[in-house]
Amino acid sequence: MSSSTGSPDIEPIRFDTKIAVLLRDDLEPWQRLNVTAFLVSGLGSAVPEVIGEPYEDADGTAYLSMFRQPVLVFEGSKETLTSAHGRALSRQLPRAVFTSDLFATGNDRDNRAAVRAVPAADLDLVGMAVYGPRNGVDKVMKGARMHH
């Protein structure tokens, strides 16, 4: 008997796309969580196909939709992040960035102004999210390691 709860007789869903977050390895734990949350929110708003259907429990209580696939979180040095950013730009993949300046701002308007004030090559990146074909995202993340 099959069920939608992940029974062994159901073929797992395989995605030809990947959602990945790359964090700088010198961030404090609270910063890693904060940056990850902000970054993935950008993908959901710009790439609607990454969002699945709404959730509902057995009592019929509705919950918000979430990503339809896993989010892989990586970490790397400042140089790894800079290189990955360049590869994401050259591949024109949907991306979100978080710079060190954003830790000092407190709202969306100031966040956008802080990023806008710095040329792409000079951004002090502490995190980046990217979405795209599996092989393209793998190439962007080259040199990064899975976050632990």
What does this structure look like?
The model has no long low-confidence stretch (mean pLDDT 92). The chain contains four helices and seven strands; from the N terminus they run E-H-E-E-E-H-E-H-E-H-E. The strands form two sheets. The chain has a five-stranded mixed sheet with strand order 5-6-1-4-7, with helices on both faces. Strands 2-3 form a two-stranded antiparallel ribbon. It has helices spanning 29-46, 78-90, 108-116, 134-140, and strands spanning 17-24, 55-56, 62-63, 71-76, 95-99, 125-133, 145-146. 32% of the residues lie in helices and 23% in strands. A hairpin with a 5-residue loop joins strand 2 and strand 3 (62-63). Helix 2 packs antiparallel against helix 4. The N and C termini lie far apart (36 Å). By secondary structure, the protein is of the alpha+beta class.
